[in-house]
Each structure stands twice: as structure tokens, then as C-alpha cells.
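FAQ: What does the model actually see?

It sees only this:
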Amino acid sequence: MVREQRTLLKERGFLTYLRSRPRALLGSFGQLLLAMDSRRMEPTEVHEKWAGRSGVYSPEFYADMGATGGTSSIRSVLDARVDHDAEILELGCGGGRHLAHLREHGYTNLSGIDINEDAVDVMEERYPELATDGTFYLDALENVLPTFEDDQFDVVFSVETLQHIHPENEWVFEEIARITDDLLLTMENEPDDDQLMTTKQVEDFPLYFRRWRPIFTDLGLTHVTSTENQIDTLRVFHQSEAEAAPPKTD
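And it is asked to produce this:
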């Protein structure tokens, strides 16, 4: 154990090492260091960088990628568990590539949130039917989610979006649980080994990799299954085990 801890310190640095420790064991000084580190970029700065993002990692960049294996994996989960008229919300929908794929396969009640001001323009160009038929919000999750009613959406899902939530805004996860009536799907990067959270710099902005299973099970959801790929992990949660609908049968 001591040797493993020394390796963590050497390879990943002191702050990353601290994030791998349960907060109860950190003490006030360790928690202060983590709080200071998380503020290297304020929440508003994170928002601003994504709101004006162009080029790599912009709505147009992801629209060019189109549907991927991850997109198909999300649809497979929905096909097995919900009807085509389910109310579906994507967190961080970008130009709409995932929602457009769902629409092509029969899903009719589609909504999305994205902070980038170009998202709707890209959608109108690439997926005009989706732009016309769906409901979309151009703002930060922190501003939009509190406006929704409890259990408003049958399905809520994210693809590499929740990892952008600043540590000061982790209350957003409670809002996600609150508005989800049935299924929550997260396809996000997660930390290596036993870390609870790690911050990685990509280009000029931070990504906050977290362990999503304990986050949402602590908020009352039931973890159903997970599938790992080379980049991220798809996790499926139900609002509660007692209310969980079994997979559909033909």
C-alpha cells in the first residue's frame, strides 16, 4: 500500500494523489488544497470557453463526426427499455448528432441543452428536421436545469459533458437526478484506479473526471449496468430499483 501511494505521488503529482483519497481522511489542509486547485479556473471561465468554442471540440467538429459506436450504444439501451414517445433530454447536445440518430430511429420527443452559441446554427444546417421538431436551450446546464419540473424527462443522457462541470457546481448532479423520471445514461471519462476525481488539462481548459456510479447512487438512483470502451464508460441508472422497468420484450 505504501509503495502504491508513493507511485501515485511520483507519477501523478500531489493534488492528483489527494483526489484519490476519501475526503474524510484528507483533513482541513488537504481539502483546502483541492478547493484552491479547483479554482484555477472559475466556473464562469469554464462557461465562457465552451460558449465561444470553435474549431476542435466545437458543435461543428462533433457534427462532422456524425453518429459513432457510442451513439448506437445509447440507442440500444433506449430501444430495450423505453418507448419511442419517451421524453428524452441530452445534456450538451452540440449540433445534435446523437439526437438526430435517435430521431432517425423513431424517437419523437427530443430536447437538448448546449452552452455553445453555434449549436443551433449547426443543427439547422446539418439536421434541419431535428432543429424544427425538437426543443433546445442555449445556455449552461446550471441555468437551465433548475427551470425543469421534477421527473420531467423519461430519459436524460450525456456524452462527455458532465466532465466539464466545475467542482463548485456539483449541485447540478442533484438537479439531473431530480428531473429524471426513469433512465439516466452517462457516457463520460472516469479516473484511473481508485481516484474519486482528477482534473486533466485538454488544450486550454480543464476536464473533471469523476466516478459517476457513487455520485448518482448517492442521489438515490440505481446503477443497472456499465460498458467500458477505450475512451469512456457508458453507465445506465434507474430512478429507483423498485420503479425500474424491465427491458422490453417483443
